[in-house]
Write a structure and sequence with these properties.
14 helices, 2 domains, mainly alpha
Length: 315
């Protein structure tokens, strides 16, 4: 009877090392994910405290009749019915949508044309100077811009002086005190603030378009307008979407420019939801109605921005 002796298995250091490192590699991504959450935790805590919590508080207050001091009285959806049936409050929403013309449509249109022209010029010196001048309004606070434009819109301000200088003195007026022209005058301040940002974003986007597309269009005999319509606009779809989203939110939620320039006057000619919420809450002490108006405005912003995002994401 033969005896078979088994040889002990050799210890393979490389396999053990690979096995151990594999375990470490498998464990490391999970640790990294937790570390990422730890880094984001302070910002998340601030966001929950100063953004999410006030939103839920506003929703709660909107169902009460409360002056901010005494006992709150439950009124259900009466505040929302008031917002959607009061002509004065509805006019503030209409004014906000009207400002989209000046905050969004004009700045995006001007930005597209300026970006296309700057691409054709291709001058580093002129391009850098133009970018600086266009972006300058962005570094000025909206309140300071409103103060400056209030001076320029006055009866003896720069705007009326310019009109008199070119022989249009009959059109001069106290622009911010005129019931007809006060809202467009405020809107033009928004145009001045938004054009630079839109132009810079569109200039950055136009630089990513393949130059061979323009060259092929020129070889096919396409005019400048045809190149703009068939090459530039499709190539800037995402950048246009960003500009529209930012400026639409700025128009619907406008506050600082209107509050400093007119405080909603003359009468209610320039009253927008942001200023009306402030007036209802801190002047008339109607926190429930102010919260309802703020929630309605939030829903409108989401209802407008959501479809716009989907449209600009489509190919």
């Amino acid at each position: 009877m033969s005896t078979v002796t088994s040889r002990p298995a050799r210890f393979n250091r490389s396999e053990a090392t690979a096995h151990t490192s594999g375990k470490r590699r498998r464990r490391f991504p999970a640790n990294r994910r937790w570390a990422g959450w730890l880094f984001a935790l302070p910002a998340l805590a601030m966001y929950l405290t100063f953004v999410v919590r006030p939103v839920f508080s506003s929703v709660q207050y909107s169902f009460y009749d409360w002056n901010g001091i005494g006992t709150a009285r439950w009124v259900g959806v009466d505040n929302y019915v008031h917002v959607l049936s009061d002509p004065t409050l509805l006019s503030t929403l209409w004014h906000a949508f009207f400002l989209i013309i000046f905050f969004t449509i004009i700045p995006v249109a001007v930005g597209l044309v300026v970006a296309a022209v700057m691409r054709d010029i291709q001058s580093k010196l002129f391009g850098g100077l133009a970018r600086t001048l266009l972006f300058l309004p962005q570094i000025i606070p909206g309140a300071a811009s409103a103060v400056a434009w209030t001076w320029m819109y006055s009866q003896d301000g720069l705007v009326n002086q310019f009109l008199r200088a070119i022989g249009l003195g009959d059109f001069s007026r106290a622009w911010l005190g005129d019931f007809t022209f006060a809202l467009p005058a405020v809107g033009f301040i928004g145009t001045w603030l938004s054009v630079g940002l839109c132009t810079l974003l569109l200039m950055a986007g136009i630089g990513k378009i393949d130059p061979s597309l323009y060259e092929a269009a020129r070889m096919d005999g396409a005019s400048w307008l045809a190149q703009f319509r068939n090459v530039t606009l499709p190539g800037l779809r995402q950048e246009i979407g960003v500009c529209v989203t930012i400026t639409v939110i700025a128009a619907l939620a406008s506050f600082d420019v209107v509050f400093i320039a007119t405080q909603g006057g003359p009468g209610q000619a320039t009253m927008v939801p942001g200023v009306k919420v402030y007036e209802l809450a801190f002047v008339e002490n109607r926190l429930g109605l102010a919260s309802a108006l703020a929630i309605v405005l939030t829903v409108l912003v989401l209802a407008v921005v959501g479809p716009l995002q989907r449209v600009f994401r489509q190919r």
